[in-house]
Amino acid sequence: MLRQRIRATTAEASLKERLRRRRRSGEKLIESWVFLAGILTIAVLLGIIVLLLKEGLPAFWYTPPWEFFFGTKWYPVSEPPTFGVTSFFVATLWVTLVATAISVPIGVACAAYLAEVAPVKVRETVKPIIEILAGIPSVVMGFIGLTLLSPLVQSAFDLNTGLSGLTAGIMLSLMSLPIIISVSEDALRAVPDDFREASYALGATKWETIRHVCIPGALSGITAAVMLGVGRAIGETMTVLMVAGGALAVPVSPTDPMMPMTAAIASGIGNAVRGGLQYQALFAIGLILFILTLAVNLIADRVLERQKRKFAR
Amino acid sequence: MRTGGASKRHLSQRTAFSMLIAATTIAVLPALAIVIQIVISGADAISLEFLTEAPSQAGKAGGILPAIVGTFYLMLGTIILALPLGVMAGICLTEYARENWFTRAINLAIVNLAGVPSIIYGLFGLGVFVLLFHFGMSLLSASLTLACQALAMTVTTSREAILAVPKQYREGSLAVGATRWQTTRHLVLPQALPGIITGAVLAMSRAAGETAPILVVGAAFLLPGLPQSPFDQFMALPYHLYTVAAHVPGMPKSTMWGVALVLLVVVLSFNVLATIIRVRARQRRYSS
Q1: Of the four listed, A201, A212, A300, B41, which is most buried by Cβ atoms within 10 Å?
Q2: Do the Cβ atoms of A169 and A254 come closer than 8 Å?
Q3: For residues B277 and B197, is the Cβ–Cβ distance under 8 A?
Q4: What's the Cα-to-Cα distance from B138 to each of B67, B75, B85, rounded to whole Å?
Q5: Interface-testing mutation among A106, A238, A308, with chain B (most B C-beta atoms within 10 A)
Q6: Are the C-beta atoms of residues B12 and A209 closer than 8 Å to each other?
Q7: Shortest Cα distance from B32 to chain A (angstroms)?
Q8: Which pLDDT score, from 0 to 100, does residue B223 have?
Q9: What ipTM score was computed for the predicted complex, to two decimals?
């Protein structure tokens, strides 16, 4: 009797188990797809790294790193070709410097205004406009720099050409403004209201509170915002390709025409023979660019994480 | 004495605030100026012919239809490839994988992919899709390249949208015996859908404006007709704008502004669409 019941329940259990297994086998398939998708995102990043290393590193067999980094002559088609990328580096440096010098003070001030001072109505008008600015494609920014800004820069600084690092830097500053503003504003908002109230209770004015409480409290977030803006400026391609002037000489002033690293890749890759020396040298520039932006983004991400934890309770 | 100090402090506050307002104005004005200028200057070029004909005389006459169509194909190809993968990876991060090295690796990959310059994606597409896979300079290569670039965005937005679904839903569903996938499929995904679509539309908008990658993997400046298969070359609005603005001498000004206007309208209208979806979904959530 008891044995029978045990047998019956085990039969029932095994039937249930079998049904569950059948249901699960379909799900297993889907679940494996889910994990595959996760793996694929990692694979894309790894693929980029492997490709840049595979195509870029051989450039250093032909040109030793020292000559590559500190050489000033980029003659890819002369015989024998020489590949020195100093002028591209310096150009990227100038353009990024100009962009950062303009966008950081304006962006942080704008964020402080939006987060701490602005009435709701103003905020709700300004934020969509900033979003529009973020949405304008880089090629359109390049076009605007080419048609509207470069004549202005040319006449203002009395230059031979308005296409210069300065012009590109100004356009880039507009393009990194949105990210600087939104990340800084988030950081300022994350500062708890208790801090502000304590400051008011001590008799500080609103500005003194912003200046001495809110901004120091949000400093790591603002730092991350600045880094993300810098990363954007370093990696931006179309605008600098169209506006920076494209000269190969090492630029000594921001008003010189110049060719930042991204523009060098974009303008050279079309003519480079696949697997040839120039092709490899361009991938090597890409590798350096990748490492630069990777470092900037990783640091920014770390700093943001720390900021998030700071006021978490 | 004391009141003097206070008024001085208030004066410095007023000065400071007016500087903040000035900074905000400086940030806002160029955006408005750019959009308004493009609309005004571009409006002259817009005609039925401009929008529905193929270019002639090296782009100086005729229309830009192949570029418009090419850009829509690109947006479509990008999102078809990037959205399912992004949603799957988002599900993987939130519903399946525990907090371990695997999810950390995915999150790290996403953060870094989001920061990789677009020209690097171009090099990646050239090396992998054009040369290694032999897809050639084609619509397919370009879509795959842009999809890789969009992946970081679709994963992030899917993850955030799925995370925003309250935990109680899942617990209730699992408690009545639904499996994890049934819960995900019938409860979590429908709830997260508006957020996922918002991200997808933004990704499409970005794909429409992206220039550097397609410059490398093979957009064409002038093609007589529309691409007939994914393996054909294609024209695209951003690349067309780049070429007419920077490379063709004697290009009529109005044509350049016209191309810029069409591109801007495509990109921004998708941005607006994303905003509308987001706002609608939020309203529905509050009303229910």
Answers
A1: A300
A2: yes
A3: yes
A4: 14, 14, 22
A5: A238
A6: no
A7: 7
A8: 76
A9: 0.92
